[in-house]
Amino acid sequence: YQVEFIKDKFKKKPNLYIYSIESLMSEDIVQNHLKVEKSLYMDALKDSNFIIFDNHFSDDYSTRNSLNSLLSIDQSIWKKNKKDYFTGKENSPFFDILRKNNYKIFTGFHDSHFGAPGKYVDGHYTFRSIKLENKFYQNYYVNYCQFKMPWYHLQLFNYCEFLKFIFKIDETQKLRSAKDFEKYIFSFINKENDYNKFVVFHQLTHSHPTPGTKNWRNQFIKSREKTVNIINQLVQKVKINDPNSILIIIGDHGPSLLKLSTEKEFHKNILQTYSNNEKLSYVIDRFYTVGAIYDNSSICNNYLIKLKNKKFTTNSMLLNSVLQCLFEEDQFTSS
After folding, report:
1. If pLDDT is split at 50, 70 and 90, which confidence band does 166 have?
2. 33-39 — which CB contacts under 8 Å span 24+ positions?
3. What is the pLDDT of residues 174-231, one digit of tens each?
């Protein structure tokens, strides 16, 4: 099962940047579920003139399913195939359309959770990646020395050290932390002369709790400024380096406190918010998130305003609305 495109040529070709932020919560969720007065980052989105979609959901749960379903375009088909598009292990008709319009495809996740990159993306990066001008060497090193299990690293230790020597990789070229990774992926926001870009990166500014997490509310409070900083940096990069691009910020899903947290105050807050409706509480807690688009040059403004008027939106609806704009067609697939 794959989506079928009935159009293949874009009439507009801006660079497209999608930055997914782990378990990103809207202002009402922060207030009602966590009893925290302000998210701070929602104000940052408003102050930067993002179009914010008020009743917004992820298409699927778990980061893996959320990001792969986004790239599927058609969610009914995604439910049938569940293919691994994000790292490029599987090809997507959407990727074919991007390549026909001279786009290169770059994805990234803060660690190697998704596994080694496949051949259907032009680059997949983590904080174990390296920065080299020679992309062949960079990808070669990544495939053999980045994604193997620890025992395999020991087995390949001399081999990887030899590669470092041959490729002249020094410590400054390694992305040794999540902070280095975040700084590196900001660098993708720039205009290239010979190709267009489609970029999807996932960032872990704050995470959902685990059953062992204590006082997750305070952890969230401390993480807010970092999220604000990331949003502000992304906007500044677009304004300075690529003003005619489109920037999409989404949450991959909600924090799923009912399932993942053992702190009873969250359970109580959530159920009270929805009059003890357990099914509604579960759906909102797991799937309700943030969707916002920064269209600096108003390239797709008419399409995005039309989308904002819908009763609800999802991550894939945001991307599909941008594709409608690029095709200048409301219908671009057969379904």
Report:
1. low
2. 33/255, 33/257, 33/266, 33/269, 33/270, 33/273, 33/285, 34/217, 34/220, 34/266, 34/269, 35/217, 35/265, 35/269, 36/217, 36/220, 36/221, 38/224, 39/224, 39/227
3. 555 667 777 778 889 999 999 999 999 998 777 788 888 899 999 999 999 999 999 9
Tokens 């949450």, residue located: 251
Q: Which tokens go with 148?
A: 């193997």
Contact 278, 271 (CB under 8 A): yes
Angle at 317 between CA 72 and CA 260, to 5 degrees: 80
Position 145 confidence tier, pLDDT thresholds 50, 70, 90 = low
In the block, residue with structure tokens 């999220």: 227
Among the residues of 150-247, which ranges form H helices?
Answer: 150-155, 157-166, 178-186, 216-241
Structure tokens at 97: 């359309």
pLDDT tens digit sequence for 62-81:
999 999 999 999 898 888 88
The amino acid at residue 180 is D
Q: What is the DSSP letter of 173?
A: G
pTM of the predicted protein model: 0.89
pLDDT grade for 97, boundaries at 50, 70 and 90: very high
Neighbours of 182 (CB within 10 A): 22
